[in-house]
Amino acid sequence: MKKQLLACILAASMMAGTLAGCGGSAQEPGTTAAQDKSRESAAADGQDKKNQKDGNGDITLTLWHIENDAKRLEVVKRCIERFEASHPNVKVEQVPMENDPYKTKLTTAMAAGEEPDIFISWGGGWLQSFVEEGKVLDIDQNVREISDIYHESALSLFEIDEKYWAVPFRAGAAPVYYNTKIYEELGLKVPETVDELEANCQVLKDNGIIPFALGNSSQWPGALTFIWLSLREGGSQTFLDAFNRTGNATFEDESFIKAGQRIQDWVKKGYYPEGANGINYDTGGSRMLFYSGQAAHIVQTNSFVANCKSEQPDFYENNLGLFNYPVIEGGKGKADEILGGGNGYSIAASCEHPQEAMELVKALTGQEYAQDMSDTAGILTGIKGVDIKDSKLQQMEDLLVNASYMQNFYDQFLPTELGNLHKQTTYDLFGLTTTPEQAAADMEAQAQKDLAK
Predict the structure, then answer these.
(1) Residues annotated as region Disordered (predicted)?
(2) Are 164 and 155 in contact, with CB atoms under 8 Å apart?
(3) Contact predicate 217/281, CB 8 Å
(4) Do 316 and 206 belong to one domain?
(5) Which of 49, 59, 69, 342 is the most exposed place for a label (fewest CB within 10 A)?
(6) 116 belongs to a structural domain
């Protein structure tokens, strides 16, 4: 059936894959023995949930999330404590998990009918599949009543068939981070076009500096550059038309092919570290290249800000800069079309206490929570009214507010198989083991299966 998913039209990510940032970008699910354990655990947890209501009428709400970083978890715990204090008959049982195990566990729980009351979502095709299966509570009216406190960029991530199915609590762009000291020493200026960026890269190469740090062993980091380049080449509508199967639009459009060609050209020119596909971003390999000055740029999600501040505070204060991805002269993409993503909380259709669950979701996506998350963890939430004290976070916020369109990460926007193929074909482009034309053809072949009318 045709996937009717609206893109993020704006009014105005990582130690473990976040975008992400996404939070972090969705990472590739594995098929291992761990999945069997997850299935058993999910079923047990779900059964516990069904039995969690005592004779005094007290309510227990189960909450699954991936806020496992110490600082982010601290903020979540404080929010839950405030909620429980104001709702003495409600007990919240939170289960923080790592990104990939969470996806496996939730999918298994959904299939078994043992889902938690509240769960984290990335929006896009991932959320839409659960919506179409009737697993997600329709909270559209509730969301619209509080929608004025959220940036449209964040809210629109969770709009499917003109209804909102989650409430945002994180949103951010994926800009180009750069070493300001290197730029100053070499007399470089922040580029506004890709031609200017390439000229800077040549100067960097001439001075023995790697233009871009990249650790692509988990595939999603390199995919960020592909999405940026295809967005700059074809503009937002090209992707949307290919996704929606509009007219003759396909994933073999020249914008996707040109993006692949440019990536391979940059690989051959040495713009990336040798063996980038074998470097692990999650364990810090590419970040260390950037922090040490061996590389001048890194394209990453908004979570990189918090990572850098925690791992290298001196570098963060004195050397870190960021800029919006440059435009391509002659391309259809506009400067105010950006790449980014976010997270939201959805409520399961099976939740026995939807009113209390919605009250908890409001607390976990409210302004007090957002301010605490900004101050404590350096994370943007997509929630208005936050006093952002960090100038770099403010730059990130400005990108969101001033954008006309935010392209969600492909592996979150697209159906699972197509999203995973996108990461694999991009990985192969960086590894020079496929051609741009073949990568585009492979994507289109899968799209015809997954996005058929």
Answers:
(1) 22-57
(2) yes
(3) yes
(4) yes
(5) 59
(6) yes
